[in-house]
Amino acid sequence: MSNRNNITPGEQAKVLDNSITVIRQQVALMRKCLETKNHFMDALKHASTFLNELRTNSLTPKQYYELYIMVYEGLEYLSQDLKDTHPNNHLADLYELVQYAGNIVPRLYLMITVGTVYMGVKDAPVKEIMTDMMEMCRGVQHPIRGLFLRYYLSQRTKDLLPTEFSDPSTEKKDELALKGDVSDSIQFIITNFIEMNKLWVRWQHQGHSSEHRKRVEERKELQILVGSNLVRLSQLDAIDRVYYKKHILPLILEQIVKCRDLIAQEYLLDVIIQVFPDEFHLITLDEFFDATLNLDPHVSIKSIVLTLVDRLIGFKKREPDYVAKVVADDSVDIFGKIIGFIDKLSQLKPDMSATDYSSILESISKLSITYYPDRYANIDSIFAHATELFKDKGSSPELQAQNNWKTLLLAPISMYSDVRSILQLDNHYLEFFNLQSYQLRRSVSMEIVEKFLEEEVKITTKEELDKVFTVVQPLIVVPEDPTVKALKLGDPALNSLPGASVADTETEEDSKDSLDIILQQESLAKLLQLIYNKNPYKHFELLEIARDYLQPAKQRVKYTYPTLVAMTLKLVRKLYLVKHIETKRQKNKIAKFFTFISGLITVMGQHTYNAVDCFNLNLMTAEIADESKLVDISYDFFIESLVIYEQFFVDSRSQYQALMSLINKLISAKNMIQQNVENFDRLITKTTLYSSKLLRKTDQCRAVYMSSHLWWIVEDVDDYGDADESEPINAMMSHLSLKDDGKRVLECLQKSLRIADSILDNNVSLELFIEILNQSLYFFIHGNEMVSVRYLNGLIELIRNNFKAVGKIEGPFEATWKHFDRTLKYIREQKSIDPRFDEVNA
Amino acid sequence: MLVLAIGDFHIPERAVDIPPKFKKLLQPRGKIQQVLCVGNVTSSPSSLQFLKSLSPDFQMVKGDHDKDLSLPLSLVFTYDKLKVGLIDGFEVVPKSDPLGLLAQARMMDVDILIYGSTHKVEAYTLDGKFFINPGSATGAFNADSLGKEDLDIIESILKEDDEADDDQEEIEGKSEEVDKGEKEESGKEKEKEKEKEEEKDKENGKESENGEKKGEKDVEKVEQKTDNDKSDNTESNVQPDTDAKETTTNTVEKTDGGKDELVDDDDEDDKLDTSEIEPYLDPIPSFCLLDLQGSTCTLYLYTLIDGEVKVDKLTYRKEESA
Amino acid sequence: MFKSPLDIELRLDGEDTRETVEVKSTKGRKEKIPLYKDGETVKGQVTIRMRDNKRVEHTGIKIQLLGTIEMNNDGVQSDDFVSLAHELASPGELRHPETFPFEFRNVEKPYESYRGLNVRLKYYLKVTVSRKSADVIREKELWVYQYQNQAQVEETTGDKKPMPTSMVKMDVGIENCLHIEFEYSKNRYSLKDVIVGRIYFLLVRLKIKHMELSLIRRETCGAPPSQKSESQTIVRFEIMDGAPVRGETIPIRLFLGGFDLTPTYKDVNKKFSTRTFLSLVLIDEDARRYFKQSEIILYRDE
């Protein structure tokens, strides 16, 4: 037997081939002998010959396994023949006979083959045979050969071991001593396990140390042989959890601890977790954890704990009733045991990496949430540990650690079925949270917000709101460009709160936020919309609190305040609808809402780039105030928007668009028209004036003719009368005229005509003329008598003449002409339904 | 040609997101050839990104709340024999006024005008042109006054509540007369409400089977089912009812008159619970799909009502001008 | 060589049914030899036939039962320790085939038959037809077993300070290299017995490859100073494969019944001794052998 280390793979392949040939031949010869009378001894000789191939020292474990399989099949014939042809008493002799074999490996394979057949016959001394085979197997100390031999023992005895406990009251003592019961089987399997494990561990230390990695690989290939023993144990139905706890696990764990081998410890603990039932694990946590604390220092306690915890969490899903019972039973304090373990762990393994530690804490918090969803104190104590750990060595800058802290923080968020549960968490969670870097806190905050949004949970009390804002704090107070600065200076201290405030002189460009920040602010604004209380007053109080929390965001309130404004306006509408804006007291109360809004807009207004938003928010507020019949308040907000318009709207395009919005909002301010027309007139006069002051003439012209609507307001009480097939006349009847200053309308139209006329580009003037004509038609239809048939005809005539002056209709004029043509066609069509059109020269 | 008309998101100022059921329906699967957005989306980069993911051809006009001044105010597209105009609608005065829109359509020389800004989904023909408002995809709050239908529903809910409240208060013997009047009123209201529901049911009948899945699966199926519709019936059934004018004014007057002393204390304020009217305050989330073929536009109005997606179908056929 | 004029047939009573012992002859052939006990009567007939029907004159016919020890200690020496004789016929003439019954009553056979390397202890019957010219002789070997029980063992081996029948325990080692403890269940075994024991490894720094148990028979003959000893390994039995680690215990079990062993004899007739040693052999990876021998007493049990 040469040392296999000196052998090349090519030579190994040759050895393997040779062995395979020998085994094949000898198995065939053996079978022939078995089939012939009186050749049994020869058969044994052939068996012994092929078994000799298992004495090889030249093969890899994998190759050896190949031989083993062949040998196993060969011996299966022998075993079968023995079963079929040999009388019981003969087997005892045969068991002795095969022991004359001079070489131990063939001898033991034959012994086991005969012995297991013997075990199967009636009244066989099963226990004696078991014990004897087990004892004799000690002779093979070579790791590979020993492992396979013992695996053979295990395979062969598989269905022959006693499976029941004996009943001492009925069975005779000496009979028990002879035949054994399941406790002997357990003993048998555990012994085999221990011996196999020792051999397996020993393999690591064979050969040259340079082959360490190769050994590791080979051992992984062999591990299943060892693990199979634990599988066998787990298949013994007679074992219950108490027996397991008392008589099985301690022995297994003792071996695992004693072997002091990294691979074995990690693998076998994993096997224990996987093969034994969860209810066993639940009552053996102490034993398991104790063992875990005594392992090789390089063993990943993390993965072991994680595997166990995953199993237990899965158990809850598989057997919720069982787990519920266990959990209800206070005597089995699973969490207490685990936290006790963590305590010991931190004492005994001060060197454990922060990442491992936090992974363990994470998984345990998941377990706690799964098993004890209501015991928030559990989570708190986990984070108390985390906090301690972090203070100890947490500020490790490595990314891995950072990620781990993050997943730890997110564990409760992902596990609680209701994300609001995280609001129940006590101070340690927050303390730990606040210890983290800004980046980390921010991303955790984002996850929390996303979770809230996903689950659409409402935030309904001040307490909840306070908690929520504590955890989303990092989204509110954003350090100045933390990524850039952190990169530049590499100084983690910068991750803490920013010191200096932002200078007031910024331009919009300066304040341009990264997409990241915009998305983060967007989420924050969305989160605000989860604030809710069925009582609008209480709801409002919550919004005020939210505002207080948001204030430190400084210029970034521009992302969130508009949401608060809209939400407040919705509350106003609600109160109005339920008739809570009627008495003086109520009106006073509602005034606070508007003060609140005004405050929000004012803060936003400190930054010029928010002008459009502020303008729109003021208009919106004015509109709701009017709807609520708070016309004075409405007026104030209209004024506010006018002020903003004057101060900040400088370019023509935004001015024009702002005026369109303004005009529309004014038109809809129906209560103000009815209750305080003086104010209203002040507003529309101002608006019309603004229109006439626009810089570009086209804008000016259009704004002015649009302003005409401010003086002719009908309430469209029939929202879809126009779509009705009924006569336009009837449709008109359903309009309530709120303002009918026909003269001012005409003035606007005339003014816009003059502006259009003053434009040098003929085509542009023409287009505007046509637009004015269309505008005039609107008033004509709506019965403004100042806009008469004569007026329309005059306009039409004007346009026609202008086209004539142009001469040939071509180029840009073509489109304008078509617009005119369409307008005339419309007029002609109206004649059929509205006799007033008869006189219009279309 | 399948075109998505959508808009008025107002995320995150007024809405959290497009309803998940819409998102599911709209998942990018290459069927939508063009997305027309009526505006009010730009403060949410994520929403914009979502829209752009639906079709490589994304078109958008500026809404009154969009801050991107580079966006056009109007766009015109030609699909075979149909010209479609896209505007936000805030620049039409009075806003969403049919005559105003008609003039706008004439000016833009379009057969179909898609507009937004009111958050009210609707579609109708006027003067041979087709007007489509896809409504708000998020059902975002809108400061414009509520539709009559919603107001009526809210009114009737409040009436019922009052009755319940009044039952308690009657023991104390307060203001029976007012209550009686209101009871009668509410009785009438309820009847009206019922009638309306029935009408709606009739109208919806054919479409009501079109659950979310069918709509999602294939719009053509919807078409087959609803082909019985007269093709000239282009009236959308997602529209407010008529004749509510009197009731509103009445109630306004009455409440103005009487109730001061009844509920005037903070305690009452604390007990206030407006959750019942909550569902009627915000617009119905909606969007539209336009199937444009030759001179025909088949319109699918998607609305989310009580958590269920409803699909209504309308067909518009352009009159061939002589 | 003359052709023998006579044919002598030596038949033992009940020879066909008598137990025999199979023994390997020096030439490697197996022969079956009838088995006798100490004190057993040896009885049979001798039939003498003439060849060619010629009369044969003789000076007497006798039969002897001899027990002899042969040693090829510088040429064969033999020494009869048993010598019994019966006259079968007085001198005369053999004309017809004639049969003579014989009987050695209760023959004392003090030693067990043995065929060793240099020593042979044998019992045989010898028929001699004496003639004036060359005698005609016919021999037949008998095999003798000496059965003993435990108590008798001590006497027969002549051990003055007999080892007690007890467990054998030994503690051996190579300094800083190996330290083992081994034990056998006892120090004397019947030939059908089984050796049971175990080896306990206290220190293993050798790269052990395997371990064997050998049974070695040592035969000593002659008297000092010309004493001659020779050993022969009778059994070689692998009891361990691979290298154990400290603390490992390896079982020993060796069935003796199947081997050709000889009971332990000391100073048989002052001529020779046979002893058996149990040798534990460790073989390391460099094929070096380390062994420890200890004698075991073997005896034949009935």
From TrEMBL, chain A:
Principal location class: membrane
Alphabetized InterPro entries for the sequence: Vps35 (IPR005378), Vps35_C (IPR042491)
Record key words, sorted: Membrane, Protein transport, Transport
Source taxon at top rank: Eukaryota
Keyword tRNA processing in record: no
GO biological process: intracellular protein transport; retrograde transport, endosome to Golgi
TM helices/strands, residue ranges: none
Pfam families recorded: Vps35
Membrane topology field: Peripheral membrane protein
Compartments where located: Membrane
Nucleus in keyword set: no
Gene Ontology CC terms: cytosol; late endosome; retromer, cargo-selective complex
Protein family: Belongs to the VPS35 family.
PANTHER family in the cross-refs: VACUOLAR PROTEIN SORTING-ASSOCIATED PROTEIN 35, VACUOLAR SORTING PROTEIN 35
Protein role: Plays a role in vesicular protein sorting.
Protein known as: Vacuolar protein sorting-associated protein 35
Organism: Brettanomyces naardenensis
UniProtKB/TrEMBL annotation, chain B:
Listed transmembrane segments: none
Compositionally biased intervals (Basic and acidic residues): 171-233
InterPro entries: Calcineurin-like_PHP_lpxH, Metallo-depent_PP-like, Phosphodiesterase_MJ0936/Vps29
Coiled coil spans: none
Acidic residues compositional bias, start-end: 160-170, 262-271
Domain Calcineurin-like phosphoesterase: 1-144
Location of region: Disordered: 159-279
Family: Belongs to the VPS29 family.
Name this protein carries in UniProt: Vacuolar protein sorting-associated protein 29
Automatic annotation (TrEMBL), chain C:
Pfam families from the UniProt entry: Vps26
InterPro entries linked: Arrestin-like_C, Ig_E-set, Vps26-related
Domain of life where this protein originates: Eukaryota
GO BP, sorted A to Z: intracellular protein transport
Annotated signal peptide: none
PANTHER family for this protein: VACUOLAR PROTEIN SORTING 26 RELATED
Family note: Belongs to the VPS26 family.
Protein name (record): DEKNAAC104523
